[in-house]
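Input.
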Amino acid sequence: MNYLSSFSLVWIGMLLIVACQGEKDFSLPYEKFVLDNGLQVVLHEDKSDPIVSVAIQYHVGSAREKPGKTGFAHLFEHMLFQRSEHLGRNEFFKKIGELGGSFNGATGPDGTVYYETVPRDALEKVLWMESDRMGFFINTVTRKGLEREIDVVSNEKRQNENRPFGQSNGMMLKQFYPEGHPYRWPVIGSIADLHGATVDDIKQFYRKYYAPNNATLVVAGDFDRREVEAMIRKYFGEIPAREEVEPVRPIPVQLEKTSKYVLEDRFANAPGLEMNFSGAEQFHPDAYPLRILALLLSYGKNAPFYKVLVEDNKLASYVNVASSSLELSGQVSVSVKAYKETDLNTVYRGIQEAFERFEQEGIRDNDLERMKIMQETMLYNVMMSLESKTQALARNNVFAGRPDQMVIDLAHYQAVTKEEVMRVYRKYVRGKHFVALSTVPQGQTSLALTGSVVVRPDEDSPVGQKLVADEGAVTDDDPYEYTPSVFDRSVEPPLLANTPESAMPPVWTGEMSNGMKVKGMAYTELPVVQFAVYLNSGMLCEPKGKSGLARLTAAVLNCGTRTKTPEELEVALGLLGARVSFGVSTERMQLSGSCLKKNFPQVLRLVEEMLLEPRWDETALELARKRMIGNIRQSSTEPKVLARHVFRQMMYGPENVLSNSALASEKEVAAITMEDIKTFYKTHIVPGQATFDFVGGYEKKEVMKFLQPLARTWTTGGASQERLNLNFMAPQAKVYFVDYPGAKQSYILLGCPAMPKASNDYYPAKMVNQLLGASSNALLFDVLRLQHGYTYGAYSFFDCGKYANEFRATSSVQAAYTLEAMQLFKSCISTYGEQFTEQSLVKTKDAMFKENAAAFEMPDARLDLLSEMTVDGLPVDDLKRQEQLLKRMTLPEAKACIRNWLDYDRMFFVVVGDAASQLDRIRKSGLGEVKVVDLQELR
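Output.
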């Protein structure tokens, strides 16, 4: 049949997305082809940035696995990054990094996707690499390589579980889905099953599912259509089709009774409750009103679940209702993170009360409209990124049969009525059976729902278990047989002729009559704007003894205005397609927002109210305080948070405001009053020290005009002065150890003080760190993960601002190899200067220049650039200065920078792990003095 011949055009589609509330239409044109071998190809041209994005979606996920062989789909995703016939060991990581690109893969229950975004001249190289993985991979698989990847995936699984509620999802899947259902196990599978995998298992999986006739290839971005057509024909056309994969049919879950279970969590310090009801599979007519139902129940301050559980009864800091619709079935989930020692029977009664309130009050027209607008704005968010567009086109083509399914979905959401929402509520939720899982701290099963059956997770591995491939570093594998090809695939294609040049959009500046400075940058691809009002230095403004004051101030300011309740403010913003909120970090407090371009003037009137007419609601303060204390308690069991807290305490000292962290003092938070908040507001939220940063489709004169009303009314305020102790402490020990009993992973942090971002040393230091730990193309990742299999990832970075400036190298490693990983960190960093060569410098320069091609694609990236100028004190032309530094840097200068800022002797370790199995080994290692940290003394 001629219409299926190579690159014969099957059809051309035009996706028209109608913007919210009458914005002008914009189009997303695409073409769809099918090759002789069955590979479906979707092309989308977008020349707004000099980049291209490639995605390949395979129709295979964990649902294709069988009991006893779980985790294979995800394991195979990892294997595909090892090597292929014409790409050496770990060359995929290195080449994409050297091209200045980004990449990843993801496996779900139903599919697996691989994607890359690179400068436009690297497109042919990416197609060459991806086609090699599709058709010329399987002969390279060896037992040793398989074992190393089993170790990496095992680390990933333990890392996910080595935290509060880390095992709850897997347990819920096991209890909710019946025996034989393909969703009964998590995507990552069982470590025991993975350890049983053979090379033959991998080969069978590849031959069955990794065929061109089971995949969609999408190429999007700045390319020449005829060129890309020829490339795809060359690289993918010869890969043979294989036996068709059998289609799947929905397997909805029919619960015959309500079941309750309780899981003891050794890492949790507060209980949580999840309840799952049966739902609808993807594209089912009921999936759309079910999603709207979930949003109406829990999203926003007017939602019944928020009102009852968080605000009225103060039982929880977090509540969410979600409807997930997958290929085979769906579910409606209620998730509650309760406060410490809360009886979950009380939470359950609160859930029932929330359902009753929903039934009694019904659905307000404004609330339904807001949820529909939210679906439209989410579509805009997908369209902002070329990479996310590419993945969406691939995903929709595989699962819906057409790339434009997202617009069909939007039409379905827009058509949802109140009657339909209530219909699916009665059909799936009201009075229906469910599965409940109470997750409680160890020894506190009395907090679980009455009648719960105790369940325990499978112990995949003890703390001291060794690696599968415990034979040292992997550097190469056995030889393999090459698959015949019609051309020489060992010849890497050159870069294309259309080499991109980075071009930073111009920045304009201004100043209002009240002293507020204004900066802006254009963004015209979509009719949206983003903005931020930077107000002060955030947590650094907090007086001694008032830790948490800045965050509580932001929380109170988010709770309505003098004329609008929190609910009324939320509705007003939602109907404009806007999000606006106060936020706080270590060095900044800001009011951030986004909205449709046409609604920007109206949103500014609400911004004015939020800034100048706070509600000062004591009830809101009490609620914010309780939630903040609950969050402090929950975060105090996160290994990463604990390590950062100890690191700052040891580097800055307990009396320094720079040592404040997410683990703020409960006692100090509890003592903060409304008068404290009003004083902070009057002193630190002042126009003369504020900057308004804008990104969108308005010109400077229009933005300045829109801001005139705010400038006229916002005229008073005190003088905001930070009094900071900028001295660093000399750490007393080389290793600070935090006991995390029973941890199967250890979190390692190695770091030291660094320079301000505005320093002349910052960008050179960032440059020399590029090949040390900035990405999966760097030394730490290569040594700790790819060669040794100790971790899922290892990275290093300079985290710098104006005052809090740090270098950190981090990884979560298998507990049994804590010491070995620390020694590798020492070896990599202490010898890095010797390893850094002229070739290293050339690679770094090339990659960083190429990365700039995509630096300004997203509006939030442009806003981040403006914020660096505002908050960190960078000049408007700093990017030009950075480019000059990059061009001029010599090898002696690079080595001097490494000596100054990557000096291992200046660094110290913080380790969060199981002391019973690891502490003694570290003490005897010779790394230096080891001090065990008593967390209670630090708070």
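DSSP finds 33 helices and 25 strands in the chain.
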